[in-house]
Amino acid sequence: MSRHPRPESGLTVHHPEYWAVTKNLRAISERTLKPDVNWSKQTYAARGAFLREVFKVYPEFKQPKGSWPQVYAMRLLSTQVVQARRRQAAAVAQQPAEERKRRVLEAKRTRPKVFVEVPPRRYNTRATRAHTVISISSDGTSLQTLTGATTPTVSDESRIEELLGSIDSTLRYLAPRFVEAGISDRTRLLCLGKWPKAQVEDLLKTVVQLSAYEYRAVCMGLAELLKNSAV
To answer: Is a pLDDT exceeding 80 seen at residue 74?
Structure first.
């Protein structure tokens, strides 16, 4: 096997061994990495196993840090994640409305019901109880709750879907995730735009499980809507 170009330049499709190398890298990634999960979310052990196996076969890629095989794996996994989300969105879109409602009800029955004491509202001096959006963050601390007079209902999914559609028509498929997390009406969703950025990121990425792209799109859309909406 002839020596590859230096890692920083990487392989191009014009290199005679490009397809053979990428085929091997794909096979190694399937053995060592979790599919449909971004590189940054892979475990340290999985990433290490991938790189060790690659460097055994292609030692010329070992230096410098951030070598081409890692870049290739990052792009491959990112593509897999996007494709998986597209398949999920297509599957959800094809489901009858009753089936989607059934899934939301099932998720609400199985997730924990957490209620916490929230600070007094400005117009009152008494503390009130409110339904929370799964109020425990990834580090175990409480998130600020979204206060509301009623518990979310399944019928609110269409309103959340409509609001997400006004941000970006391709984001409608996220409505069930928001409803399952307890964000079930326009007021609660728009309230996120007034939260501290760190709490919003923790909630949307940890609880609602948005990707980086979905997170940016939702935040930008909410900021724009808040300019023209009164919560």
So the answer is: no
